[in-house]
Amino acid sequence: MKKQSNIVEEVVSEGISDAECVRKVLQGEKDAFEILVRRHQKTIFNLLYRMLGDYDEAAEISQEAFLSAYRSIKQFRGDANFSTWLYRIALNHASTRRRSLTKWQQRTLALETTEPVSEPELNPAETMEQKEIQEQVQKALSGLEPDDVTIIVLKDLQDVPYEEVARVLEVPVGTVKSRLHRARRALKARLLPYFKARGARQ
Amino acid sequence: MNCQEVQAQLSDYLEKSLDTVNLEIIESHLSTCLTCRTEADNLNECIRQVAALPMLDPPIGFTQRVMAHVREIENKPSLWQRLLFPLQAKIPIQAIAVLLIGIFAAYLFQKEQSDKQPLPNSASTAAIDRTAKQANPFSEAEQMTSNPLEDARPRSSFGNGPAVPRDQWTSNENEMARVDKTKSPTEKRSENRLPSQPSVESKGSMGGLISGIPVVNTGMGSAPFSPPPEFGNASLRPGSMSIEPFADYELVFRPRVRPQAERQAPSSILDRLPTDNSTPQTVWFTVPQNQYEQFKKDLGATGTIESELLVPLLRKEGLSQAGGQLQIKVTVLPVAETNQGGPGSPSDR
Predict the structure, then answer these.
(1) Which of A120, A137, A180 minimises the CB distance to B11?
(2) Are the C-beta atoms of residues B194 and B128 closer than 8 Å to each other?
(3) What SS3 string covers B92-138?
(4) Stronger pLDDT, B340 or A140, i.e. the higher one
(5) Domain locations in chain B?
(6) What's the CA gap between A99 and B249, in Å, rounded?
(7) CA–CA distance, B131 with A168 (Å, rounded to integer)
(8) Beta pairing class for B249-255 and B325-332
(9) What is the torsional sign of CA A124, A126, A128, A132?
(10) Least confident stretch, A21-35, B7-21, B115-129
């Protein structure tokens, strides 16, 4: 159930590869970097939002990640996907952000997830129950280890192939699979009370 | 397969990535084990709910904000980029520029080389005193040589004047053109075999425009005053157009007319003085430092020392290189009488 914005679809359909955009940026064409931003902003932002649980925080860290990528774009090697490289930069920024927060702030962040006041993606037909489930899943994610959240969001939310997840996390594919299974069980353990309560209600 | 083993493979089972054998085993187990089936259902619900999470859009204007910061970061391309990019346009231009600079540098180098006097690898070197050149309208007198290399070198400042008969060389000191002819060590060594026979080289060239100036180089012999052993320490003298060995003292000497008897008297200095006194000539002596006054006295006995010039800048270096030996350059002027000849004419030698 992936929702792609029209903008991203247009940009993706332009046919200019990430590597071509990077080459143009290196030649001084800044507009080429805008294509990269439009193409990858949604995945980066949603990864950070699911990890941090705060909409504004995720937007800020996403912006930092893109600017950091622009500053160090000369270090990007063409042998990896630009998205993989960008994921790594975003995760580094998220990790730095989490370390800078105190434990009390992290706990508050985990408990109080904030979402945009007006959510354009929300379907008006979505029921209150769906909203409630999403909030519960987000809370459960915010209580997990950052690596577990990363691997669940990349694989189960964004459907990133195992091979690319392995490159992002710089571990073998087998390790990704075992870590994903462990993360799913941890998420299930956090959501189990909600599932039971919901089952009882039904 | 027990429950733990089955639950370890539930993710693969739910992703339908199990092989057929394991799939049948797991399905067989789940059909009988309520615990494992509940676990599988809960995991599947988790995966489904995560996948059902909405992909939120970033805030409106996110891209514009990022790009605004990007444009602030680097408004100007780096020096490297300005120099090189775009490669298609700038590399050829730079290559052409480098080529032109190289050609211009080579042209300048060759022009500079052609303006210079030849290096002291020629058989002879010449020195023309600048003051004499200015004072004497016949200063085109130049070193005569049979070396074709030297004949080919530019004579921009000399050689344009009319032919000057020898007789026109006057004894006036102010009008004197002093032309020094020194020899390469090879020539000097060959001449040392004839110590008592001063050699005179005087050959006209330059289409007959130049008067030859004979230069006497004395042999070493057994005399206490000997010519400089080597001219390897020759240095470029300021104000000189070419290279000659440095002199610690430069003397201008005018000999007296001597009777034949006096001329045959034993005198180490007299033996080396040129016999052809019609034109100024240069004689080099090497004198031990402590015998310089004696040398002057002996020289004064045969004529008049009209001027004595100590070359201060080069003296110290010269002494150190010659090991306490003074290099003395004696310019022998013609004697007072205009008609010279007799026993001193070159043909007699």
Answers:
(1) A180
(2) no
(3) HHHHHHHHHHHHHHHHHHHHHHHHCCCCCCCCEEEEECHHHHHHCCC
(4) A140
(5) 3-51, 136-348
(6) 88
(7) 87
(8) parallel
(9) negative
(10) B115-129
Quick check: B43 and A1 CB within 8 A? no
From residue B267, give the alpha-carbon distance in Å to each of B13, B214, B296, B299, B301. Answer: 126, 22, 13, 10, 10
* Beta partners for residue B330, in sequence order: B251, B283
**Domain A125-202: CATH architecture, name and number where available:** Orthogonal Bundle (1.10)
- With cut-offs at 50, 70 and 90, classify the pLDDT of residue B258: low
Which residue in A28, A41, A192 is closest to B58 by CB distance? A41
Q: Which amino acid is at B230?
A: E
Pick among B66, B73, B75 to test the A interface (most A CBs inside 10 A): B66
Q: Which of A78-87, B240-249, B272-281 has the highest mean pLDDT?
A: A78-87
State whether B52 and A134 contact (CB < 8 Å): yes
Contacts of B63 in chain A (CB under 8 A): 34, 37-38, 41
Coil/strand/helix, residue B307? strand
Distance of alpha carbon B112 from its chain centroid, rounded?
11
Which one-letter DSSP state was computed for residue B272? G
pLDDT tens digits along B194-223 = 444 444 443 433 333 333 333 444 434 344
Among A48-52, A69-73, B234-238, which is the least confidently predicted range?
B234-238
Classify the complex by whether its ipTM is higher than 0.90, answering yes or no: no
CATH 1.10.1740.10 assigned to domain A14-105? The reply is: yes
Instruction: Judge whether A4 and B55 are in contact, CB under 8 Å.
Output: yes
